[in-house]
Amino acid sequence: MRRVVFLGLFFLPLSLFSQSAFDFVRVEDSLKVVFNSITAETTYSRRDSLNSIFLDLLRSTLEVQTSFNYPFDSIRIGKLKSPDGKFRVFTWNIPQPGGYQKYFGLLQVKQADGNVALFELKDGRKSITDAKNEKLLAERWMAALYYQLAQFPTANGNAYVLLGYDFNNLFTSKKIIDVLTFDSQGTPTFGYPVFNVDGKYRLSRIVFEFNARVNMVLRYNDDSKTIVFDHLSPSSPEFAGDFQYYGPDGSFDGFKLEGTEWVYVRDLDLRNPRRSKPKPVNAPVDFKEPGFLYQPNKSSTKK
Q1: Is the sign of the CA dihedral 191, 196, 199, 200 positive or negative?
Q2: Which end of the chain has fewer beta carbons closer than 10 Å to its terminal beta carbon, N or C?
């Protein structure tokens, strides 16, 4: 019975593609069944096989021009659409042995002629050596599960901040602030030097790495045009750069949009003014540098 269901799901889109009116409801139902099967599956090899079916079906569906306005609400993956209607992005992850992850993404982009182009985002984390500065194409993506975006102006048109989560491995997790831009042909590029840190650094991407057992706040506040995040510190000075010992220290920093750049702001006060501000927990008093500036200590950080 399992084999019959499996094959039926695989061949379902072939019959739908031949119809004059594409049946998005039926395809969404199939996508939901396959993805729910992935999350319920405990065998890594079967999980990967089911994900191949899911990816192929979703890719084929998103290549249909009229799919751009269909919500796909019942499929429990990351889905974001830009405020100007320029693009929308789908992201999801598949757990792997040893606490590692595989990430997948599809990006729909409205072109100048009104047509919709589809780009597959391919996990390129292993090949990225300078995450803070590299510009990356879709074929070499700094993979993450995107959960929030913000649009902002540049000299070359609109750009978009993407906030994402990377489960990374058993020891550390990552949160990422990436920037998405498009050239005149509508081709996407990730990374853009708009993060101004104290006037000394101009970064294209911000990567936070921290202990996998703790959580970190990273969110965009539209009212103040500020990306707010926990200040991360090591539990002791000798662990600087060893991110499995990093965690929130009780203070908050941010990047505030000023014109066409995001300016680093230290020590934001987000608490009720009638309550006293707590002292940082398990963090050196004078550890003021932002954690995202440190290079990982490869000799002591387990990967």
Answers
A1: negative
A2: N
Roughly what angle, to the nearest 10 degrees, separates helices 44-62 and 2-17? 10
Q: Which residues lie below 8 Å from residue 218, measured CB to CB, with a gap of 6+?
A: 163, 175, 177, 208, 227, 228, 229, 230
Interval 83-95: pLDDT, tens: 999 999 999 999 9
Tokens for 197, please give them.
């840190």
Q: What is the pTM of this model?
A: 0.88
Query: Residue with structure tokens 């050596």?
Result: 129
Secondary structure (DSSP) of 69-114:
G---TTS-SEEEE-TTSSEEEEEEEEE-GGG-EEEEEEEEEE-TTS
CB atoms within 10 A of CB 279: 10
- Which residues, 6+ apart, have CB-to-CB distance to 113 below 8 Å? none
Tokens of 229: 């995040």
Q: What's the CA gap between 153 and 259, in Å, rounded?
A: 8
Per the structure block, which two tokens stand in for 242? 């060893």
pLDDT in tens, 107-135: 999 999 999 999 999 999 999 999 999 99
Distance CA 48, CA 34 (A): 11
pLDDT digits (tens, 9 = 90+) for 15-48: 444 444 689 999 999 999 999 999 999 999 999 9
Interatomic CA distance for residues 53 and 260, integer angstroms: 41
